[in-house]
Amino acid sequence: MSFIVYPALDIRGGRVVRLRQGDYAQETHYGDDPLPRARAFEAQGARWMHLVDLDAARAGGYTLAPLLAAIRANTGLQVQTGGGVRGRDDVARILDAGASRVVVGSLAVREPEQVIGWLAAFGAERITIALDARQDADGEWQLPVHGWTENAGVTLDALAERYAQAGLRHLLCTDIARDGMLAGPNLELYRHLTARLPGVAVQASGGVRDVADVAAARAAGCAGAVLGKALLEQRMDLGEALAC
Fold first, then answer.
1. Where is the catalytic site (predicted)?
2. What crossing angle do the helices spanning 112-122 and 88-96 adopt, rounded to 10°?
3. Cα dist from 58 to 81, 85, 182, 196, 234, whole Å
4. What are the tens digits of pLDDT across the range 207-223?
5. CA distance 224 to 5
6. Which residues, 6 or more positions from 204, have their beta carbon under 8 angstroms from its beta carbon?
């Protein structure tokens, strides 16, 4: 299984931003230039990128189709993207706009039966399930919903295994406590997931600080790593991360 580095852009109001632990009130603005940044990713050797519609994640209705189409027209990047996916038509529209994979997050937790059907309808290679997890006092990984304010009533292990049995190929997992914190990825979590889900390509997301963290995620069994804040703040060289 090849390891993929996903440079990431989170977009809100047309601007490149990052949120601290998913909090819209804790936003840092990095510029109004997502397309030039995507071109720069490709110039440094990236083959994929990760694109998030933060407006849609809150309100529904994917808004980045024009940007996605521009990225596909002006670069050779494959794009994994999501935000605000509420139904099958949303998946179809995002794929039609040029996405290589559609990321499904909150709906994958709330309505797994519906989303499992999409794996068959669109193909497992076209869907990435994104599960944001928080460890509770008993050591269980819970899946908070509604802005990470309440637990969904199902654990990460149980839901991930359910999707794996249904043919899931790509799983993006974020440790909420590390999202946007530059605290390093939760390698214990990823070793646990990759051992439990041998047929699933797990992507590490949250906390990646430097090239050493990328290498550590790969050593932990991950099939990829999403790089966000560390790239935007120039704490990491994308070319070096790709080389590792």
1. 10, 132
2. 40
3. 15, 10, 24, 31, 28
4. 999 999 999 999 999 99
5. 6
6. 173, 185, 190, 217, 220, 222, 224, 225, 226
Torsion region of 141: left, alpha or beta (phi above 0 gives left; psi -120 to 50 gives alpha): beta
CA-to-CA dists, residue 20 to 32, 95, 113, 114, 220, angstroms:
19, 29, 31, 30, 25
Task: From the candidates 10, 55, 179, 210, give the one annotated as an active-site residue.
Answer: 10
User: In CATH, what number is assigned to the domain containing residue 61?
Assistant: 3.20.20.70
Task: Specify whether 175 is catalytic.
Answer: no
The helix or strand, by DSSP H or E, that contains position 151, with its residue range, turns out to be: strand 150-155
Q: Count how many domains the chain has.
A: 1
Which listed residue (53, 55, 90, 132) is catalytic?
A: 132
Beta-carbon contacts of 195 under 8 Å, excluding residues fewer than 6 positions away, are: 221
pLDDT tens digit string along 148-167?
A: 556 778 999 999 999 999 99
| The two three-digit tokens of residue 133, written as one number | 């997890």
Residue 230: count of CB within 10 angstroms of its CB = 20
| Domain around 28 | 4-243
